[in-house]
Amino acid sequence: MEAWLALVLFVAVCAALMAGFPVAFTLAGVALAFAGLGTLLGLFDIAFLLSVPNRLYGVMTNEILVAVPLFVFMGITLERSQVAERLLESLAILMGRLRGGLGVAVLIVGMLMAASTGIVGATVVTMGLLSLPTMLRNGYDPRIACGSICAAGTLGQIIPPSIVLVLLGDVISTAYQQAQNNLGIFTARTVSVGDLFVGALIPGLLLVLAYVVYLIVVAFLRPARVPPHETTERVPVLRVLAALFPPLALIVAVLGSIIAGIATPTEAAAVGAGGALLLGAGHGGLKLSTLTEITRGTVKITSMVFMILVGAGIFSAVFRGFGGDVAVHELLNALPGGTFGALLSVMVLMFVLGFVLDFIEITFVVVPIVGPVLLAMGVDPVWLGILIAINLQTSFLTPPFGFALFYLRGVAADSVTTIDIYRGVIPFILIQLLLLGLVAAVPALVTWLPGQVYG
User: Fold this and answer.
1) H helix runs in 322-417, sequence order
2) How many Cα atoms are found within 13 Å in the side-chain-facing hemisphere of 303?
3) How many CA within 13 A on the CB side of residue 380?
């Protein structure tokens, strides 16, 4: 009976979230209501709720999670300081005369913005406002233009330093320790955010390369859909380097300090936040009003993340109180195909949930439930984290509910139809699914580089 209540609790939470109720309060409110019902029926031990204050204290004193507001601040600062706009203008003029050059420029700027901000909505909206009008004026097929922008915007899920990887790193680390403890292993190695950052580099770069190859192939096979950029302006190479070097140097400084072991992710995030301020000030894009917007945006997003953490902590305690973790363990172990069947089922579930839930909810609600089970089966934690990140990135692109599609629809001109956006992302979805399959088939694409860097 308790296991059935755990299942009903999970379904009720998903239904409430789909209905549009606030995530954090839905997680906590529905869980507490079920805890009260279970207590009245004698099926829930109230002692599980007594552990919640200690869990929340652990969240608030977690140094890794301090990186979240710092990376958010870094991303919003670069977004508002017009760094991306200058870079896109320079690259568009430099590469635009080539077949597919403008589209490639959009992908490169999108990659850098994704690595800088780590926020899908911010990147898609910014690239939509900056590049979509230019691409349409130059005769680009609306489907190609929309697909390129949405795909570039979702790179923030996998290109480090990514907020998704920061949150996933913390959750995967906890799940891995729990799995090892359940197996009686108390001296297992830990998993860090740096491991996920390094593990994501090769898949992320392969994904960008695949996007670029696709655009170039389309430009040669269907030149009318991807025409050259018509401009008589010549841009000096030094101007391009001046626009490209600062954000690239900032990303290298942040990632390099983590990979080299010089700084923790939190310390590197502080370097990134300070560097973003210097870049913004150097470009003259930071005024008092802009700083106020940046600060408010950072506080808003950070508060949302941590409130969801609080709600997820309460939900997790109640779910375990009903024996939901044991039921999930038994279910995944009973699936045909062993570890592969369990992993495939979890990936399909997350892909579907990605249509209606944000990555934060999935990271804090679903991963703590299924993660310990999969890791106890011998799944590599870094490989699992990257598979989840690519999977959620794909679901964010997939019609009809992909979040990136709605973000672009909100800033696209009326001449661009929703069908154009939907059809435009299909080739990029197929590319991402191919990459997901490749990473699943060849785990070394994820695990080799962390092994080389960290031994």
Assistant:
1) 324-334, 338-353, 359-361, 367-376, 381-395, 403-411
2) 8
3) 18
How many Cβ atoms are within 10 Å of 426's Cβ, its own excluded?
14
Dihedrals phi, psi of 262, to nearest 5 degrees: -75, -35
pLDDT tens per residue across span 125-169 = 777 877 788 788 888 888 998 898 888 888 878 888 777 888 888
DSSP 155: G
Output the DSSP codes for 231-299: ------HHHHHHHHHHHHHHHHHHHHHHHTTSS-HHHHHHHHHHHHHHHHHHTT---HHHHHHHHHHHH
Peptide bond into 450 cis (omega under 30): no
Query: Half-sphere exposure of 184 toward its Cβ, with a 13 Å CA cutoff?
Result: 0
Q: What is the pTM of this model?
A: 0.83
The set of residues, in sequence order, having a beta carbon less than 8 Å from that of 81 and lying 6+ positions away, is 276, 279, 280, 283, 285, 286, 290
* Distance, CA of 65 to chain centre: 15
Residues in the chain, how many?
A: 455
DSSP string, 170-234: HHHHHHHHHHHHHTT--SPPP--HHHHHHHHHHHHHHHHHHHHHHHHHHHHH-TTTSPPP-----
Gap between the Cα atoms of 413 and 409, Å rounded: 8
Tens-place pLDDT, residues 60-108: 777 777 888 888 888 778 777 777 677 777 777 777 667 778 888 888 8
Percent helix / strand / coil, the chain, rounded to 5: 80, 0, 20
